[in-house]
User: Fold these one by one.
Assistant:
Number 1:
Amino acid sequence: MFRGPLYVLAFAIYCYLVFHYLSLSDNGGGGDDDSRIPVAKGSPKLSSNAYFDPEPLAKDRTQIGKENATLVMLVRNFELKGALLSMRLLEDRFNRHYKYPWVFLNEVPFDDEFIEKTTLMASGETFYELIPPEDWFPPKHINIPKFKLNLEELYNEGVVYGGVESYHNMCHFNSGYFYRQKRLLNYEWYFRVEPDVQYLCDFQYDPFQLLRENNKLYGFIIAIHEYERTVISLWDAVQGFMEANPKLIHPHNAINFITTYESDLNKGHTVENLNSSYNLCHFWSNFEIGNLEFFRGEAYGKYFDYLDRYGGFYYERWGDAPVHTIGVSLLMDRDQIHHFEDIGYYHLPFMTCPKSQDVLTSKRCICSANGPDNVQINVGMEMEKFSCLARWWRYGSGKLFMNDVDYTSFT
Ligand SMILES: Nc1nc2c(ncn2[C@@H]2O[C@H](COP(=O)(O)OP(=O)(O)OP(=O)(O)O)[C@@H](O)[C@H]2O)c(=O)[nH]1
Ligand SMILES: [Mg+2]
């Protein structure tokens, strides 16, 4: 008399097993790793606010590149979209062939969405590091009321980011602390990446390997003039450092790159009425590929500490770009600084691209970017009057007239 319900139960179990088997064999909802990718055929479409199974994170992230190197991004949670844009382009143009890891730095914890989306965008391993407060906030010797007063003054004078407290912390951190972060101690080379930048050409080689094999320590892509108001006393501090530490200055340095003024290198434009010998030229540090041991070495350490005592990161608005530039120009052999002339790059509002048609086509460059106010930028800034590149060619390591790498090969 109880057979009816038993048949129904057995039939339900049978249906469940058949359905489960079919969905497995169909790549539908379980089984091997690929079957869990949400866009796979037969996967359920999740509601718009749902997160999918984290199983795709299990993709093979084993590093292929041979160097002890990492990509590094200091970034805030709200910059996620821009971070993904930069990552997407750098992965497509370079890193997917090498799978170097990414290190993300922040003075507050990264949120789950940031971690999940950047991990999915990366081809290599990802690390999310919290910056200790003592590495981020003003050091003890900074007079905070004076700092606040100067912030107000910079703001009133309309100095770009001068009135933004966190910007001062960022420049101070990037000048003297990023390379000491615990995670970065594991690496010898770094590639700095910022949100919302664009890489416009295929790399077609490993830039870390290029630097190491050619005995280089620092690579840049754009060199321009700094706003004088942000670095009024910087050169005084640098001079004090040079006088106190003459042995640390490299005999084959690039001091002429940062202290000469002739205007023929800037289309006749003169950087007039400067109150110091510093000509304001600097490598734009939003793109940097460099050697972390150099920054962790005695010379740069003493240089940074000397500048830090001066207080200009907080009382003025010294940027990490002029601070890095003056440091590498004085403390390195100038031939150890490399201009990546074959890599197209955009960071608002400037673009740079290779000039040679061979390089442009073989590296599949797209030399155009959406600039401020939606104005299309199609011309690089290398030879504009505010560029310092011609000065680098004359006083740095010179202009290369031969390809220094094989642009057509991968390692
Ligand atoms: N975690 C964290 N990152 C920051 C902060 N301020 C800036 N950054 C990051 O530091 C880098 C430089 O900051 P930007 O705001 O791009 O400075 P910038 O390049 O001079 O100015 P933009 O023209 O606005 O790009 C970027 O990678 C930012 O994401 C901050 O307060 N906290
Ligand atoms: Mg930026």
Note: The first strand starts at residue 69 and ends at 74.
Number 2:
Amino acid sequence: MDSTEPYRATGTGTPAGDFDVLIVGAGISGIGAAYHLTTQCPDRRFVVLESQAGFGGTWRTHRFPGIRSDSDLFTFGYRFKPWTGPPIATAEEILRYMGAVIDENGLAPHMHYGHTITGASWSSETNRWTVEAVRADTGETLQFTAGFLWMCQGYYRHDQGYTPEWPGMADFRGRIVHPQTWPDDLDLTDRRVVVIGSGATAATLVPAIAGRAAHVTMLQRSPTFFRTGRNAIAIADELRELQVDPAWIHEIVRKRILLDQARFTRRCMTEPDQVRDELLAAARELLGPDYDLARHFTPSYRPWRQRIAFIPDGDLFRAIRDGGASVVTDEIARFEADGIRTRSGELVPADIVVTATGFELAAMGDIPFAIDGQPLDFADTVTYRGMMFTGVPNLAWVFGYFRASWTLRADLVGDFVCRLLQHMQAKGLARVEPALRAEDHNMPVLPWIDPEDFNPGYLLRGMDRLPRRGDKPEWQHTQDYWTEKDAFPAIDLDDPVFVYR
Ligand SMILES: Cc1cc2nc3c(=O)[nH]c(=O)nc-3n(C[C@H](O)[C@H](O)[C@H](O)COP(=O)(O)OP(=O)(O)OC[C@H]3O[C@@H](n4cnc5c(N)ncnc54)[C@H](O)[C@@H]3O)c2cc1C
């Protein structure tokens, strides 16, 4: 089969094709993986299977008003494709950027939408994965085989978000919606809207609907840190004015942003009180001297233990100052017919409740895995650098950064996987899996992420389904771009950690 020839589907259970690499998911990671394969391993036959009806992943799934990135697109964009717009981008702009990567690199023939992967099993006899996928249009189950699985399925369920159960929800007379499944017909005009949550989604949604609804209340259990600033990067504007090549601008601005972020992260660790005071001072400036900042925007955790969302041009704070939005910081006691009763007894009136309460973690795309007929539980494995897993052959997962842009890591993993595939081809090897070395056997085996370091709810709720980590950099996802950008290219592929056959 030609590397760009799409597979031919002929019927249920029919082998749909054999590929060198099968990429799961067509979000920013999957499209990046396809690009890296095309450019670094051009002789490999590969296919991208995606359950949704098109590419985009997160940026296709989320359609709530105001949906935008909270990272800058110079670093959330790929290393190889210059970003030419304002740093914080809408989902539509991000989708256009991803579409351009597909078009410019001839990736479309490899991508197959409406294919949900429902099973993956490895055979040591053939050294291949057999992947089952259900086609949305025909309901057929197709079988693919592949030498390597590149998991780009993200980390959460796309079909539904996480909504906690509160007492009295059935009594509420209005509508309850989750931002992940935003209804097209939702009319907010003159409605009182309560948005439950305090994360990036709530912070985006509240100012976006504040002008339309009668009033928007952000109801949060506890406050979150936010950063504000102009949706612009001075050096980018200056270089554009000088008509510098966009590829150079991309590279220079990435370096600038990364340096600034590294300094900020370091300061969060070394002088958290000062950083907190600065964040609060910026909020104070927009919210005014009388606003109860201590109650609504002063978290108890130290900055950076949770992602700090960026509010471009302070729009959330402006919406509050202008009166279109307000914040209630309290616990929910129960829903009532006309709103939400808090623990302190206040009734927050609502016609519509939006539960911006997070995600449902999906470990490995909720795909049942097996190795030589034995079910595989990823929670029984130890991760090699947050991308491969002990005892799991020929598989890599793209799990990006939380504190820096996800895509920075998608590019690093892309380089690593391509180097590994080239290495195996050069040596005539068909199988690789990471294994603990003799010196690793007494290593403590810990949860995927240290909750002291980073603790969003969806990870804490699902940690028992995720692979484990050790206490050495090789055996964990360090969440540290600055170390990994040098460490990944230097990985010795002949290290005993890699067991080849
Ligand atoms: C609203 C929102 C804003 C965000 N903003 C930022 C940001 O600014 N910066 C940042 O770094 N991160 C951000 N994130 C995190 C974001 O999810 C990641 O950065 C990134 O988009 C993940 O890309 P991905 O391609 O790895 O996964 P996803 O975008 O989750 O895409 C995975 C794809 O795999 C498909 N898939 C999953 N399972 C299967 C299966 N079994 N069969 C077939 N297909 C499957 C899914 O349908 C999906 O299309 C944000 C997340 C959300 C929800």
Note: Residues 24-30, 49-52, 57-58, 62, 69-71, 76, 116-117, 152-154, 158, 201, 365, 367, 398, 400, 405-406 surround flavin-adenine dinucleotide (CB under 6 Å).
